[in-house]
From TrEMBL:
It comes from Shewanella eurypsychrophilus. It comes from the Bacteria. Pfam families: DciA (PF05258). This is DUF721 domain-containing protein. InterPro entries: DciA-like.
Amino acid sequence: MKKPPQDLSQLLHQQGSFPSIAEKAELLMHLDCYVKHVLTGPVSQQLKVANLRQGVLVIETTTAAWAARINFQKAKILQQLQAETLPMLSAIEVKVNPGLFLYATKPKINHNEISKTAAEHIEALAEHTEGSLGLKLKRLAALASRPRKT
C-alpha cells in the first residue's frame, strides 16, 4: 500500500535546512508588505524587499529614480521597522534591479468575450447550419448575452 502524499508546507517545516529557509521567506514576504504599507503611493509598486542579512534590509527597485525616492524616506522606514517589527535592524540598503518586474505576474485578460456584432453573425450562420454544428454555433452566440465578470 502506498503512502498518501504529504503536504508541501509540512515537508518544508520538518526536514534539514528547509525550516530556516521557509521562515526567512515568510519574514521577507511580511517585511515586503510592511514596507509597501509604510511607503504609500506609486513608489510602493516599484519595490521589493530582497533580503535581510546581518541587520541590513535590502530593498530592490526598478530604476535609479525610484531608488532616490526610497532613499529620501529611508530614515522613516528604518525608524518604523525598528519600533514595530525589527529592533535589531541597523540599516537599509537600496539597490537598482532593472529586471525586477520583468517576470512580474500580469493580470489575466479574459478572451472569452464575444461582441454583439460577432454574436449576430454567428447566430445568422447557425440559422443556415444543420446538426450539432448549428447547435454549437447557437451556444457560442449566446455567450455575448451572458453577464460578464470584471
